[in-house]
Write a structure and sequence with these properties.
Length: 531
């Protein structure tokens, strides 16, 4: 009834509101920043392991424990970090409230009343934790199925041209819908579980907690500990302590419900932990496949790798696929700088497997492999990779323009390489070396293969593996490129069925596809095959 006091306190309250708004939003910013920092640190750590020692290749080609690494590295890491920060928000405030109310009630009503509430917290927490156990498994399963569905969609985009040529629309639609049906069935199952758990959460964490709170606040009055004073005084005390206990019950309910976020976090944690485990094992040279065939005495990384300049030597090295299929029991030959070798044989004979072992993509199952250090052996596939960036980046990949300048290669030299492969016109057509485009679409198949050869001239390695990399190039341009490699001192290992290339090589490695091979000079082989 004090009008002046009411107005004074109302003005103080209005004055404090802007400060409250600023503090609340600073807290929101801090929580958001915490999530970003956590995700940044975790992402850097994971990519350090993912991009080390060809692990990004091995995780999809050698190991089959993870089928959707992109989903784990992006969506799952983001949800994991979000779940951690949400858990912090949902536990810090309730814990503070519980501490304050337990202290206030203990000093005024004794320890029995808040102790009853804390016992209820312990019991309800144990009950709900056991009921929520399937949440972690269901969450991890949901993310796995989401990743598989996303992977199938990305495959459709990647191979859209081949699918269109085969008119495979109906078949791919069946695959997509089957994957989505599998995901939706899991989501529906998870939804039913969450609804049932919601009923128990409401009963135990909200309604029963309030009932226990009202019972606890009545104990001092029923027992006679608070019996003095008028009815108005007793009502005031009951209202004051009752409000405190209701607030304590609400805080306990929020803390109990935070267990739901904890079990959800456990699902994301298991996914991220699996990724870190697999990355660590792959970097340590271990991989797992569910179907490992081949001989029992063969073990990955049982061979010895030696780095030496100007020589490639296979000494009793078995040609074995990651599945354990033995293509050749023991492969022995030696190539030194200047010995250009043509590699031929039927499909499935092991030509690509040989290069993958040579490039350290596949493990050695035995013997000793001697090869130049990384960077002195260059590989050009039939379908060259075009990176994101300008035309200069295509010629210097994996280097950038700064690294090219440091190596003493200027734009004039890069233009010279383009002239050698008969692509000088591209500079004018695309607008110079700084032009940026989607080079996979802009360049034709033959142009991409010639860009890859110009890239080889820039790097000038000791050895180059050319895997059908001039199949879309005319014979005269192909001859000019091979002649330039010979003048530049680049020793070539070429896979090709073109007879026009035999004149650019001195030796041939022939894989017969039945586990045998021969390594001979070209003259000897031409006499044998009459060609």
């Amino acid at each position: 009834m004090d009008k002046r006091l009411f107005h004074r306190r109302l003005i103080k309250f209005l004055t404090a509101l802007p400060l409250v708004a600023v503090v609340n939003n600073i807290l929101k910013y801090s929580i958001g920043d915490l999530k970003i920092r956590l995700r940044t640190n975790l992402t850097k750590r994971l990519y350090d392991e993912y991009m080390r020692n060809y692990t990004y290749y091995k995780i999809t080609n050698l190991d089959n424990r993870i089928s959707n690494a992109d989903q784990l590295l992006t969506t799952d890491v983001d949800k994991f970090c979000e779940a951690i920060t949400d858990l912090y928000c949902n536990t810090a405030k309730p814990l503070l409230d519980i501490g304050i109310y337990v202290y206030k009630l203990s000093t005024t009503m004794g320890g029995g009343t808040p102790a009853l509430m804390l016992i209820y917290l312990l019991v309800s927490g144990l009950v709900l934790t056991n009921l929520r156990k399937p949440t972690a498994r269901l969450t991890a399963g949901e993310q796995k199925l989401e990743g598989e569905f996303r992977h199938i969609n990305s495959r459709l985009i990647t191979h859209s041209e081949e699918i269109a040529f085969y008119n495979g629309n109906a078949h791919e639609r069946t695959i997509l819908l089957a994957s989505y049906r599998k995901l939706s069935n899991h989501l529906r199952k998870f939804l039913k579980f969450k609804v049932i758990m919601g009923v128990f959460d409401n009963l135990i964490a909200k309604y029963f907690a309030s009932i226990v709170g009202f019972y606890a606040v009545s104990l001092p009055f029923i027992s006679g500990k608070i019996a003095r004073g008028s009815h108005g005084e007793r009502s005031r005390l009951y209202y004051t302590y009752g409000r405190m206990l209701v607030k304590l019950a609400e805080a306990i309910g929020r803390l109990v419900l935070a267990g739901r976020d904890l079990t959800r976090l456990a699902g994301f944690t298991s996914r991220v932990t699996q990724l870190r485990t697999v990355l660590g094992e792959l970097n340590a040279g271990k991989y797992e496949r569910t179907m490992l065939l081949g001989s029992a005495h063969l073990a990955p990384n049982a061979g010895r790798l030696v780095y030496r300049n100007n020589v490639i030597k296979f000494d009793r090295v078995p040609l074995v696929t990651p599945n354990g299929d033995v293509l050749i029991q023991e492969l022995t030959f030696e190539i030194t700088s200047g010995m250009n070798v043509l590699i031929c044989g039927p499909n499935g004979s092991g030509k690509s497997s040989l290069f993958r072992i040579l490039g350290e993509l596949w493990p050695l199952f035995g013997g000793e492999l001697t090869k130049p250090p990384r960077g002195k052996l260059f590989y050009i596939p039939q379908r060259p990779y075009m990176t994101l960036g300008c035309l200069r980046d295509q010629l210097t990949y994996p280097h950038n323009g700064t690294e090219a300048a440091r190596r003493g290669v200027d734009d004039a030299k890069l233009a010279e390489y383009l002239d050698v492969v008969k692509l000088g016109y591209i500079l004018e057509r695309e607008g110079g070396l700084d032009a940026v485009a989607d080079w996979l679409d802009v360049l034709s198949g033959g142009e991409k293969q010639r860009i890859a050869m110009a890239r080889l001239f820039y790097h000038k390695p000791q050895f180059a593996v050319l895997d059908e990399c001039t199949s879309a190039v005319s014979v005269d341009v192909e001859g000019d490129m091979y002649e330039y490699c010979r003048r530049a001192g680049i020793t070539l290992l070429t896979v090709s069925h073109r007879k026009s290339l035999w004149q650019h090589h001195e030796h041939v490695l022939h894989l017969d596809g039945a586990g045998g091979y021969s390594f001979k000079q070209i003259d000897t082989l031409t006499e044998r095959f009459g060609s």
